[in-house]
Every structure is written in structure tokens, then in C-alpha cells.
Amino acid sequence: MDKTLRIMIVEDNPHARGALSAFISTLDWLTVTCEASNGEEAVEKIKSQPPDTVLMDIQMPVMNGLKATQYIKKRWPQIKVIALTLYPNYCLQAKQAGADAFLIKGCSVEEMTSTIRSVNGIAQK
């Protein structure tokens, strides 16, 4: 692949955020450009470091992932947002907020990488 996709991880749990970052660092076609612990922090960081894709937790303090997704998609529609949560019942709300895809935390590595490729129009390997 010619281009490395820039990923932002938005997750309030520092352990989960670190695990996602560590996993993504093993993939040569993705790079974590920044991390945020809530939606408000994510929006501020996007202003100076816009990623290609955001992995967005739904339930967070300050600004939840649904509100952050709405804001990001309205202001930067080219940024892909993948909602990431423990709760499958948030799927419809995430889509209504503008999320490009929805993943359940703990999904397989294949499902996550396939979803990231899909929303960015990258052929599957």
C-alpha cells in the first residue's frame, strides 16, 4: 500500500486505548496519530491533527462518542468514524450520529482491520 492511514483513538479507558494503540502499531498500513480520552478532547485535537479515521468509543465523560461523531461528521465529513462500544444496542444511534461503521469491543482483529479498510475504500488483503 502506498499510503499509511492516520488513525485517532478516542477511548476514556487508558488500558483499552493503550491496547488499541499497541495493536495498530503492529500494522504497517496504519499509524496512530493521536489519542483522546473523550469527545471534546478529540474535536480539539482534530483541529490540528486531522486523522483519516477515528475509532470512537460511545460512552465517555465530558462529550460522549455520539455527540463527538455528529460534530466531526458535520465539520469534517471526509473523516471516517468507526463507533466502538461494548453495547450492540448503540448501533442505530451511532449510524444516526453519522458513524461510517460500528464495531463491538473485543471483535476479532480481522473484523477490525476489514472494517477500517472498508470505510476507507481499501481493497482487502
Task: Looking at this protein, list some descriptive labels.
125 residues; alpha/beta; five-stranded parallel beta sheet; 5 helices; Rossmann fold; globular
Could you characterize the architecture of this molecule?
The chain is α/β, with parallel strands linked by helices and 125 residues long. It has a single domain, classed as 3-Layer(aba) Sandwich (Rossmann fold). It has five helices and five strands, in the order βαβαβαβαβα. The protein has helices spanning 14-24, 39-48, 65-75, 91-97, 109-119; strands at residues 5-10, 30-36, 53-57, 80-85, 101-104. It has a five-stranded parallel sheet with strand order 2-1-3-4-5, with helices on both faces. It is globular and about 35 Å long. The mean pLDDT is 89.
- State mean pLDDT (0 to 100 scale): 89
Strand order of the largest sheet: 2-1-3-4-5
Radius of gyration from CA coordinates: 13 Å
CATH architecture: 3-Layer(aba) Sandwich
Q: Count the helices. How many?
A: 5
The description of the largest β-sheet is: 5 strands, parallel
Q: What is the H/E string? A: EHEHEHEHEH
Distance between the termini: 10 Å
Say what the CATH topology is: Rossmann fold
Q: Class, according to the CATH hierarchy?
A: Alpha Beta
Secondary-structure-derived class: alpha/beta
Choose one word for the global shape: globular
Helix content: 40-55%
How would you concisely characterize the structure shown here?
This protein is α/β, with parallel strands linked by helices and 125 residues long.
